[in-house]
């Protein structure tokens, strides 16, 4: 059965993006540095059509495991706007992507198996549609922060993976804000580190 999970990069001080993000500055001021570790991995470079070079160690294995399990993605309109202007022609998802928006728009088909669907009926409808196309694979709540927070507060996230980098951003978009902490708790499943990033995988325990 499909599992709903989050996989997100953050800084030591809890930011997942910098300030003033947009199409000309994806992930905001200093935000790209949060993901420097994954840009170097072979699997990431393959997904973006950059060739077969790149690192092949344990960080690559973790990234590959995440890519391989995803059957559909859900993301917010702001994240889509940033990406639309910067993703290559074969967008890096390689599976259906549901964009939460108030905009009415026909599906946008890209090379490599990525099709963006624009969902106007909220987080529950988007999740049901994602589950319908994901098959036996999982659904990733990709971001941004507000979308992740909405799915957490709704009790819909089952697993939470943080890729924490040794970086202090000082200001930006915080991941852990606007949360109803009475509704869930976290249990560590696994923690793996490398010189550049620590991967922490949590089970989300939703309280009924």
From TrEMBL:
TM segment ranges: none
GO biological process, one term: riboflavin biosynthetic process
Ranges where the Bacterial bifunctional deaminase-reductase C-terminal domain occurs: 3-184
Molecular function (Gene Ontology), one example: 5-amino-6-(5-phosphoribosylamino)uracil reductase activity
InterPro entries in the record: DHFR-like_dom_sf, RibDG_C, Riboflavin_Biosynth_HTPR
Protein name in UniProt: Deaminase
The organism of origin for this protein: Solitalea longa
């Amino acid at each position: 059965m499909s599992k709903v999970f989050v996989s997100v990069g953050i800084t030591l001080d809890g930011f997942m993006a910098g300030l003033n993000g947009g199409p000309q500055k994806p992930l905001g001021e200093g935000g790209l540095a949060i993901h420097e570790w994954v840009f170097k991995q072979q699997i990431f470079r393959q997904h973006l059509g950059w060739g077969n070079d790149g690192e092949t160690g344990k960080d690559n294995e973790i990234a590959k495991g995440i890519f391989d399990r995803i059957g559909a993605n859900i993301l917010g309109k702001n994240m889509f706007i940033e990406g639309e202007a910067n993703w290559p022609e074969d967008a890096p998802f390689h599976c259906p992507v549901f964009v939460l928006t108030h905009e009415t728009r026909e599906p946008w088909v890209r090379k490599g198996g990525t099709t963006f669907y624009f969902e106007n009926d909220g987080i529950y409808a988007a999740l049901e549609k994602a589950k319908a196309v994901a098959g036996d694979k999982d659904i990733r709540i990709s971001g941004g922060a507000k979308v992740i927070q909405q799915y957490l507060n709704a009790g819909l996230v089952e697993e939470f993976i943080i890729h924490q980098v040794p970086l202090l951003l000082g200001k930006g978009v915080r991941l852990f804000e606007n949360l109803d902490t009475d509704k869930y708790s976290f249990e560590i499943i696994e923690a793996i580190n490398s010189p550049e990033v620590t991967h922490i995988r949590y089970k989300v325990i939703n309280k009924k």
